[in-house]
Amino acid sequence: MRKMRKLIVAGLLAATVVPTVASAQSYGEARRSEQRLREEQRDLRQAQRHGNRRDIREERRDVRDARREAREDWRDYRQSHRDVYRAGRWNAPFRYNQWNVGATLRPNYYAPRYYISDPYRYRLRPAGRDLRWVRHYNDVLLVNVRTGRVIEVNRGFFW
């Protein structure tokens, strides 16, 4: 009976670890396909300098294929991590403004409902004392909540 419990516990632990390994692997695949794209573009530039028309045509085709593969890999990665890369309609009860560093916001623009509670999840640096990461449509603002002053702006963060 104890062996059975140990097997069940081991199976449950393995089931929780496997998705994190798979997500890291897909991110790595996306990065590698981007790297292949850069290599293909470098080969194309060399072929344009030294090669004949046939080599250039083949290199262009390779670059096009590598670009398509990189796009598909990133699309697959974003779809499998929808909770991190949310896209689409995110509307607030006020219209979009393009804020700049140093601007002062009214409190309704940085209300607690717009705080990003876990900045590490979105690969944002930790906010300091009295600072909060705030979502404004697809932008992310680092705001001093005591003064309302914008410290940092990341435009188009949520595509």
UniProtKB/TrEMBL annotation:
Q: Kindly indicate whether the keyword Signal belongs to this entry.
A: yes
Q: Basic and acidic residues bias located where? A: 29-46, 53-69
Q: Which UniProt keywords apply?
A: Signal
Record-linked InterPro entries: RcnB
Q: Does the keyword Transmembrane apply?
A: no
An example Pfam family from this entry, by short name, is RcnB
Segments carrying the region annotation (Disordered) are 24-69
The signal sequence is: 1-24
What protein name does the entry list? RcnB family protein
